[in-house]
Amino acid sequence: MNNIYKTSDLYLSAFLKLKGHQFTIEKNQNKISFIFDKTDVLTSDITDYLSENGICKPLLFVNSIKNLKNLIYNS
Description:
CATH architecture: 2-Layer Sandwich
Number of strands: 3
Structural class: alpha+beta
Shape: globular
Mean pLDDT: 94
Number of domains: 1
Number of helices: 3
CATH topology: Alpha-Beta Plaits
Radius of gyration: 12 Å
Strand content: 15-25%
Low-confidence stretches: none
């Protein structure tokens, strides 16, 4: 369990997806979780996002959110 990072935060997950992190989706009744392999780079990207220091192209971020929503609702 220490080797994974699990979150239900759609926007954080979209940011991490945009940064190239691989993930899986876990559905548990009405809750969705995004599961990432926990690495130093992942931890750094999470810190950047949460501290509002993360940098990405806005349109790519919006597209990443849309892609995750499609994965959630169409699977």
